[in-house]
Amino acid sequence: MLLLIFSTVALASQPTTRAKDFERGATLYKQSCWMCHGELGEGNGPAASSLSTESPAIAGKLEGKAYNAALRAIMDGKGDMPAYSEVFPREDAKRILKWLENPKPVKVKKPKTKKDVGKQASKKRKPKKAPAE
Hints:
Blueprint: H1 2-12, H2 21-32, H3 34-37, H4 65-76, H5 90-101, H6 114-125
């Protein structure tokens, strides 16, 4: 019974909404891919020159068989590329590929802290100055 209560409380503290697929794909790409594939999937990441195989330019080039091969490479690894199947689910790999169809920089929103919330509340409470007569 206690386990049920604790797990319910833990789940209740989790975010209830997830970032849009495009934003989620961009975030995951920035976390896992850009060092080799470059900021926008052009194959020019800072780690690309240290690899034994070429880091391909993949932005806008993943249709049909290439899409399926890229999805397999993300999940299972290929050459110097590690497998990410233990890092995130297949749906997130698809979100990365969706973002790579037309990659654009996406600002990642920072979660609000208690300090941020306090600042917003104090801004709302400031009285407005009376107009000069």
